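2024-03-11 09:14:02 INFO worker-7 job=invfold-0412 stage=load source=structure_tokens
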């Protein structure tokens, strides 16, 4: 359990990228939506996905590459930590691959669609656990 916790704490750094981009861009989604500029909204959303995904990928690769050095446990615990960090990194990169879509859907009034996506995602996670 401690190995999982240590890996999760290291990868929490990736979440900062996601939340920073989401927080910094949501007002622009509103601006483009209210002005009716759908083309600009779509282009800006695609841009935010790139801003979210690529730095997150770079951080994940760096953490995984240095992960064995970061966990000062035995070799067995270190390999377990790397495995957990890899699994968590894949999940985090999945979220980063869609960027701040959740905020965009909620802002556009698609709360039901957003809730269904969350329900499906949590259901698939609970099936795999």
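2024-03-11 09:14:09 INFO worker-7 stage=emit residues=129
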């Amino acid at each position: 359990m401690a190995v999982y916790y240590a890996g999760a704490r290291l990868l929490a750094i990736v979440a900062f990228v996601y939340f920073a981009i989401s927080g910094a861009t949501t007002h622009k989604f509103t601006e483009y939506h209210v002005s009716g500029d759908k083309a600009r909204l779509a282009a800006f959303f695609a841009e935010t996905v790139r801003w979210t995904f690529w730095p997150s990928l770079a951080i994940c690769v760096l953490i995984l590459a240095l992960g064995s050095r970061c966990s000062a446990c035995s070799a067995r615990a270190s390999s377990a930590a790397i495995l957990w960090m890899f699994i968590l990194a894949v999940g985090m990169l999945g979220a980063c691959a869609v960027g701040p879509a959740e905020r965009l859907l909620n802002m556009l009034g698609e709360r039901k669609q957003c809730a269904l996506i969350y329900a499906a995602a949590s259901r698939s996670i609970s099936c795999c656990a």
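2024-03-11 09:14:09 INFO worker-7 stage=report msg="The helical segments are 2-35, 38-70, 75-96, 101-107, 111-128."
2024-03-11 09:14:10 INFO worker-7 job finished
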